[in-house]
Amino acid sequence: MRQSFCKAMLVAALGGMLVGTAHAQDRVRIGVLNDQSGVFSTYQGIGSVIAAQMAVEDFGGKAAGKAVDVITADHQNKTDIGVGIARRWYDTESIDAIFDLPNSAIALAVANMSEQKNKVFVGSGAGTALLTGEKCTPNTVHWTYDTYAYGRGLGKAVVAQGGKKWFFLTADYAFGHDLEKQAMEGVKASGGEVLGAVRHPLGTADYASFLLQAQASGADIVGVANAGDDTITSIKQAAEFGLTQKQKLVGLILGMNGIPALGLKAAQGAQIMNPFYWDLNDGTRAFAKRFAERHPQKNYPNDMQAGVYASVLHYLKAVDKVSGATDGKAVVAAMKAMPTDDPLFGKGTIRADGRKIHRLFLLEVKKPDESTSKWDLLKVVATIPGDQAFRSESEGNCPLVKR
């Protein structure tokens, strides 16, 4: 079923290419660029495309009086492919804005390109806090999360819950290093202690030696600073080792979609930080039901897919406000000028540095006997106000912020 859906997406993208520049001026065109075939495809992938389509439909299908197209492509987690797609979209296919974009290297390159070509880039799957720091641009909005909020915010929240002594299991590349650094600083700032860390290569299959070091550390908390399949494999093996009997796991980027693969027995008690969970209120539950009905695997939406939906809605409001999508800088300025309000993230704002501000939730994976259905996975432990969750503008060194 997924294969047929992907074919449909390809047909939609190819069909969009045939619109032609003569007719493109009569349309607003947005592209969803992400991993649709690799290790992060479950976390963004087709789900983010569905979320964008739902947002366009819920907005009425038009913005500034023009029909809105959604096209998509798979960047395969390769920088040259992702940058090449973005350039083609901007130069020859009249794409006005690019959304989602997990993979920080690609996201930073596309953010720079979007500024050069006066287009719009809105990151939902992208994690690097540089997008609203030293690499911020007047054409970028960073919507769902970043390494600062998930790393430092989770560190502070867990220490406040009593998890004082930490040890880190970290992916040995830039994203993992940044995540570890932010969490360490959050732990220390809150009065916690970091007892050590161990780093593993990307795509590690056997975590035995790393987990033995974590067990021997005497830490209360093992911070898992990796992502995607690495997170699933390391947490699953930690449970098999019996590590979770005496130590609590904190998945700094443990997505909800990975928990069914882990199983609640292995994942129970693990804590994560998220701005969205499908079972928060009537609005999130209604969206999740509609989303699952359209998803090839009937998956429920995660935070990054919800972020695509919410950010596309707000983008279309801004396009309406400025009466067009061709001036990317003007559209982003309008996005910042308007307060945000949608059924998934609630009320919020977008700061001068492009950082979208909203509350975050400290969530804990339920025990097997607490869950009543496949996607009944998490419970809220604490709520963190947005102004406490995200890095302050003064710390980010964004050149757009007046000093």
TrEMBL record:
SUPFAM superfamilies: Periplasmic binding protein-like I. The keyword Signal applies. Pfam families: Peripla_BP_6. Residues 1-24 form the signal peptide. The keyword Membrane does not apply. One of its GO terms (biological process) is amino acid transport. Keywords: Amino-acid transport, Signal, Transport. Gene3D superfamilies: 3.40.50.2300. Residues 28-366 form the Leucine-binding protein domain. Belongs to the leucine-binding protein family. This is ABC transporter substrate-binding protein. It comes from Bradyrhizobium australiense.
